[in-house]
Amino acid sequence: APSSAMSDEESDYDYDDAGYDGMDDLDDQDESLPEGLIKEVLKEAPDTEWRKPKNGDEVIVHYDGTLQSDGTKFDSSRDRGETFKFTLGMGKVIPGWEKGLATMKRGEISRLTIPPNLAYGEDGAPPKIPGGATIVFEVELLDFISKNDLFRDGGLFKEVVKKGKGYETPSQGDEVVLDVVGSLEDGTEVDRRELIFNVGDEVPGFLPTKGLTKVVKGMKQQETAKCTIRSDYAYGDAGGLEGKVPGGATVVYEFTLKVTRTMEDCSFTEDKSLMKKKMKDGQGFKTPEEFCKATIRVSVAKASGENIVSDRELSFVVGLGKHNDLIEAAALKLKKGEVGELRCSDPSMYASEELGVSDCGEVVYTIECVDFDRAPDKWDLSDTDKVEIAQKKKDMGGEFFKKGRLLLALHKYKGVKSAVEHTDSMKDRELKTRALDLKRAAELNLGMVNLKLKRWSEALRHCNVILTKEPGNIKSLYRRATAQYYLGDFDKCMLDAMRVVEAEPNNAEARKVYTQAKQAQKAHDKKAKGFFGNMCKAFGQEEKGEQATEQPTEETAEETAKEEDPPAATDGDKEAGA
Known about the structure:
There is one protein chain. This protein is of the alpha+beta class. Helices cover 31% and strands 23% of the residues. The protein contains 15 helices and 17 strands. Strands 1, 2, 3, 4, 5 and 6 form a 6-stranded antiparallel β-sheet that branches. It has a 6-stranded antiparallel β-sheet with strand order 12-13-16-17-14-15. The chain has a 5-stranded antiparallel β-sheet with strand order 7-10-11-8-9, covered by helices on one side. The longest helix has 36 residues, at 508-543. The chain is elongated. The N and C termini lie far apart (68 Å).
């Protein structure tokens, strides 16, 4: 088979000297033929074909291979009835093929006469190819899929004009700054600007998001890429840029990636509700740990740009709740020397009496991590240390819960589980039991806090963890029933509430949840019945040629639930604690 018979291992050719030393240089391709390699074009490619495959492209060919000396055929894809595919420039075939195919166009048939130093050398490929043989291949380039053809449909070609620095490329949501120059195929310039946007977001009046995102995600810092973009990936049949681009036109853009500002989720809920934009990179990879002292520099401005606080330096022990939730969350995500920008419109998170920041709509915090004390590495902690840390976090979670700082309470309870994550390796039986009790308590309290935060699905998940091991746990049954009510799963809500009532006949809260779920289910069924009845009625009128007089509206089960007097988000516990 050609893929093995023509491998680099059987050739004396020096691939390093030929430039096949890695994918980094795949675009630096020399199309000239080396001395001794002869190419004869037997059939020209169609006039519409002008591209040639580049290193890294997948090529698809048919071929016949013969010995020049006597014309003996030693290999043929046509005789086997199957095409041959390989990636150009990777050294998977003999050098004569690599060099010859790079000069061909789609649909072209050529004869390549390849000397032994570009084929199988003095050893040959016994028994079919003797040592020192010159071989002849008749090759038809059926197709090739360009590594630069980003969607593999000929719609968007990207060519690196100037290599970038480093290895990092933008991710979804990152803010990027691009220099953009656009032109028509004849060279007429139609666009020149600096573009700032978040990867994946639509840029009004510019190229569609799909193609732009694909291009940018593969770029390195300071890289310049030339992109040839077909109309369906550009401005379509309608054209664009205020008439500068006619309908159906292919456009050519050069993009230079100047800056990437990575976005990182800082929220305690891990739902991207508080994102940090990196304005300046920091040192190393360590960030402050809870219960360690950190020094940060804070500036705060309104979304309009009006300044509120300038360069206020704060030194505090992270995780004790001394500052607002935004500062506490951000401090845990900043490397030394890093500067992050955080936008927030929730005053319960950003308001600060110490900084003089009150409810003023959306604000922008700019925070620099000046320095922080190093915490012991987790692998250096003893089992006793881990359990004590977990206990401390549980106690603090309860205090934060009482004070209504639910996000910090949530974070502490998550920290309990993280601190004693690996209990299986604990040898001390008493310590292991204590660790397991702490994990159980954290799981229970996470169910409760998530209910208070109206994170119904998360509350349900934590309740399920407990109920898998303790099917009769009353608190988790009640909390799960409440979560199911708000998720619109009234039948399951009633089942859980009834189990609580069976265990505790005097539990008025559980009885109330059961009654409310029953009423909500009845109301939902009634609306669903009315919806389908009206729909059938409308169909009947259409069959008679009449116009339906009423259009039904569809409401979700959750909306139905909200019309009733809903159950409390928790079971009335005034303190956090399992």
